[in-house]
Amino acid sequence: RVEAGEAPTCIADFPAESPIEKCSVKTTAFGVVTKSNRVHSGCETKRERGGMDTLTVSLRVTHHTARLNGITQHWVTAGGGPPVYLLHGFPETWFAWRKQIPVLAERYTIIAPDLRGYGDTEKPAFGYDKRTMANDLAALMDHLGHKRAAIVGHDRGARVGTRFAKDYRERIDRFVAMDNVPTRILAQSEN
Fold first, then answer.
1. For residues 157 and 94, is the Cβ–Cβ distance under 8 A?
2. Measured between alpha carbons, how far is 76 from 61 in angstroms, rounded to an integer?
């Protein structure tokens, strides 16, 4: 964790066309010196928090956390190219996409967040409505400098993606909703 008054840093490898500041060597709040061509401020990586697990290395993903939209969000990134956000379902995490990430990362920059309340993302007492969760996604896109992106959502992630598409139409390049039954239909079937 970052000590009070210290700014966390995120070191990651991004494609050259990514609108992110450049750095050569960065000393983090953890006293670790890392080398990278790219850095975006206000977040930290798992590498800085004490190393990588075997699965992370085999999937070639980088873990990140940052304080965005009032919560600490966690996500992984992989690959290079146009951004594609993968939104998991219930009760999953980014890890639900582990088989798709390596294939997609060959052509795209993959961003797979843990949605609010899941995995390593903060679990606040409130804010689980789809609009707030869509705002979490918008904040993450802003943080990473993505004005538009493809969004792929499964189950709960599809609901968040649908809300995002309604509220941020101009930020959607493409949208895929998988395994999603609209809440209205679920409510009607219970009556």
1. no
2. 6
Contact in structure between 162 and 96 (CB atoms under 8 Å): no
**DSSP bridge partners of 27:** 33
What is the Cα Rg of the chain in Å?
A: 17
Task: Tell me which residue of 95, 60, 75, 62 sits closest to 139, measured CA to CA.
Answer: 75
Q: What CA dihedral angle connects 111, 55, 117 and 13, to 10 degrees?
A: -30
Q: What share of the chain is helix, strand, coil (3-state, %, to 5)?
A: 25, 30, 45
Q: Where are the alpha helices (DSSP H) in the chain?
A: 54-59, 101-104, 130-144, 156-167, 183-190
User: Token pair for residue 124?
Assistant: 């606040």
Amino acid at 20: I
Tell me the backbone φ, ψ of residue 141, rounded to 5 degrees: -60, -40
Q: Is the pTM of this model over 0.90?
A: no
- Give pLDDT tens digits for 93-138: 999 999 999 999 999 999 999 999 999 999 999 999 999 999 999 9
